[in-house]
Amino acid sequence: MKRCTKCGVEKDESEFHKRTKSRDGLCYTCTKCANTISRAWAKANPERKKEADRKYSRKIQQLEGFSIKQKERYAEWITKPGNAEKARLNGDKWRLENRDRFYLSVVRNDLKRWNGISSAPHDLCVMVLDTRATKRELRKLNQTIKEIQK
Question: Fewest CB atoms within 10 Å of the CB: 59, 62, 112, 132?
């Protein structure tokens, strides 16, 4: 049994969120109080809440090929101290070792974002990289591709 510091009611330990930093491994407020506090904060800080949701969703979207369990495990891992820095360093290392693949994915994502081309052909991405086309040239090129596809 543990007492919630917010409502003062003594509750079973299963009614508290886990918190590795505390001595007993549990949060000091019960889940109901914690949810109330969280909702109040979100209501008082809509812009910060929206930004936090965006950041979280970006992290999860990066894991498209993974199962839900793997995504949840990653979301839990990334919040632990020091792990965000490890992930950034691993990403930097991968980008250096796989420059061609990385730049192709950047071009493919740009084509998606600029003109809504959901699956850009590999040859187009390579051509864009080879010619080092500017954004304006890319847009023109994509417009002609869209016209051809119609």
Answer: 132
